[in-house]
Amino acid sequence: MATEEYSEGGSVFQFHPLDQFIVKPLFGDGPVSWYTPTNVTLWMAIALLAIVAVFVLGSRGRAIIPTRLQSVGELLYGFIYKMVEDVTGKDGVKYFPYIMSLFLFILFSNYLALIPMSYSPTSMIAVTVILGFGVFIAITILGFVKNGPAFLGLFWMSDAPAFLRPIIAIIEIISYFVRPVSLSIRLAGNIAAGHVVLKVFATFAAAALISPAAILGIIAIYGLEILVCGIQAYVFTILTCVYLKDALHPAH
Amino acid sequence: MEGDLAHIGAGIAAIGSGLAALGVGNVAGNYLAGALRNPSAAAGQTATLFIGLAFAEALGIFAFLVSLLLMFAV
């Protein structure tokens, strides 16, 4: 790690923009095992509790004229339901609960991470890889169960010229296996990059000369991050829907 | 001196983020050009727009990842 020697070289800035992603145990300084409560598990639990709070408390009244919390829940539900129905068709609606859970978990952990001093579980590649590979494995199994060997027709473009078909098949297979990697790295990379940029601007704010510009920069980047958090949750969900459509209707 | 070369490599990898910006701008600009010609078809294509943006952006994120790996993992 070369960072320590560089930061002590007489510079005013102490750059540690990646320290915010260190996984720490909540109690004591012991080693981190799979069962240790850490800041990651804490913020995942907070995200789950927030989801439960919005949906259980919000829908408890079942008012004809919805309260504010109820309309937030109804809007989210309706938005994802319509997306699943539009992209995958009527027979994809069965898998709506899984897609809704993915969307809510990603959305809430993205937005809760914008609270200062918090931790974003979705900025950890370990978390997003589990989400991405979960989608990939589920959809591959589903495709073979629903279509049998005909699922392999996804890779065989029957309307392409005959001599191009093997080449296209190889490209399609590669792009199929890159899907979970790009799903997970896109989410983790976007969230982590946003937090690093915020931290770098926060470091610039320590210098008196440029601190007004740096604080304005933080405000602007924060606004951008609010947008990015929503868009990344949306993109993950809609790509899951697109892959689900491929699994249900593999014929080109 | 090995660390210095890794930092230079990280800086070169960061060029990829700028190139991804070209891709994202291309997708959004073409969408806008199409949407202004036929505004009634624009609303139905926002999902496609976001998918295209996500694919273009993912490759820039890969470049960012390479530079992070060079700085902290190599």
Automatic annotation (TrEMBL), chain B:
Annotated transmembrane regions: 6-28, 49-73
InterPro entries according to UniProt: ATP_synth_F0_csu, ATP_synth_F0_csu_sf, ATPase_proteolipid_c-like_dom, F/V-ATP_Csub_sf
UniProt xrefs under SUPFAM superfamilies: F1F0 ATP synthase subunit C
Domain of life from the UniProt record: Bacteria
Coiled-coil residue windows: none
Compartments reported by the entry: Cell membrane; Membrane
Keywords for this protein: ATP synthesis, Cell membrane, CF(0), Hydrogen ion transport, Ion transport, Lipid-binding, Membrane, Transmembrane, Transmembrane helix, Transport
One Pfam family, short name: ATP-synt_C
GO molecular function, one term: proton-transporting ATP synthase activity, rotational mechanism
All residue ranges annotated as the V-ATPase proteolipid subunit C-like domain in the record: 8-70
CC per GO annotation: plasma membrane; proton-transporting ATP synthase complex; proton-transporting two-sector ATPase complex, proton-transporting domain
Annotated site, Reversibly protonated during proton transport, chain positions: E57
Major location (coarse): membrane
Record membrane topology: Multi-pass membrane protein
HAMAP family assigned: ATP_synth_c_bact
Similarity section: Belongs to the ATPase C chain family.
Function, in words: F(1)F(0) ATP synthase produces ATP from ADP in the presence of a proton or sodium gradient. F-type ATPases consist of two structural domains, F(1) containing the extramembraneous catalytic core and F(0) containing the membrane proton channel, linked together by a central stalk and a peripheral stalk. During catalysis, ATP synthesis in the catalytic domain of F(1) is coupled via a rotary mechanism of the central stalk subunits to proton translocation.
Protein name (Swiss-Prot/TrEMBL): ATP synthase subunit c
Organism in which the protein naturally occurs: Yoonia rosea
